Amino acid sequence: MATPLKIDIVSDVSCPWCIIGYKALDEALGKLDGKVTADISWQPFELNPNMPPEGQEIVEHITEKYGISVEQSEQNREMIKQRGLDVGYEFGNRGGGRIYNTFDAHRLLHWAEEAGKQTELKLAFFDLYFKESGDPSNHEQLLAVVEQVGLDKAAAQEILTTGKYTQEVREAQHLYQSNGISSVPAVIVNNKHLISGGQPASVFEQALSQIAQEVEAQKVEGESAEA
After folding, report:
1. For the whole prediction, is pTM greater than 0.85?
2. From 141's CA, which of 53, 61, 155, 213 has a CA 20 to 30 Å away?
3. pLDDT in tens, 62-89
4. What is the DSSP string of 127-196?
5. What is the distance in angstroms between the CA of the first residue and the CA of the last residue of the chain?
6. Is the pLDDT of residue 224 over 80?
7. Which phi and psi (to 5°) does residue 57 adopt?
8. Interior CA angle at 19 toward 139 and 165, to 5°?
9. Which tens digit of pLDDT belongs to each residue from 155-176?
10. How many CB atoms lie within 10 A of CB 37?
């Protein structure tokens, strides 16, 4: 019988390592099919919470934020592009574009979890930003993606115009930051095991397998204690 695991992925829709990490995690779960089952929830994290509405040119932003040269920035983008291809994800134009505020996308993701379509919406938001050079702060573009995955566009529009779920998302952000999450992706299994960064599928497979074994061992211990 498969061991159920609760997996929270703390991430941002404009984080390339987050989609790389997810694709690797998904590959690992495929290899562990029949051994583990995963209940995945996406948790909010903003890489750039103070980003103005117009956003910022991506190379300018990266070189300023991390104190690296344009050449280093280009090398990093090439590495990310290759890592994406390694896990079956093809990034679009990573040589240009802009960085945007993503808070409204996180509010829609909070709502989508209630509708059972959170992962579908999250992956579509990744595609909007990375494959289509879209703007995840633009309400029209967000609503188009909502409709694309089969969610209620009118309900989403109400969320965007009223500020609904602002408090819930802020509280979730604070919870993970207060627990030491300062970079993403952060994959948290059963509320206590942390797997950081865009790890290869083999790392996820080994970690999840070990966690599942521990869970099953604890079950046996509990049953023995009750007997």
Report:
1. yes
2. 61
3. 999 999 999 998 899 899 999 999 999 9
4. HHHHTT---TT-HHHHHHHHHHTT--HHHHHHHHHHTTTHHHHHHHHHHHHHTT--SS-EEEETTTEEEE
5. 22
6. no
7. -60, 135
8. 40
9. 999 999 999 999 999 999 999 9
10. 14
**C-beta atoms surrounding 213 within 10 Å:** 12
The sheet carrying 36-44 orders its strands as 36-44, 3-11, 186-189, 193-196
Residues 6+ apart with CB under 8 A from 153: 143, 146, 147
Using CA of residue 99, residue 103, residue 104, residue 105, what is the dihedral sign?
positive
Measure Cα distances from 36 to 7, 202, 212 in Å. 11, 15, 7
How many CB atoms are located within 10 Å of the residue 132 CB?
12
Q: Compute the distance between CA of residue 131 and CA of residue 56 in angstroms, rounded to an integer.
A: 18
Q: What are the two backbone dihedrals, phi and then psi, of residue 46, each rounded to the nearest 5 degrees?
A: -110, 120
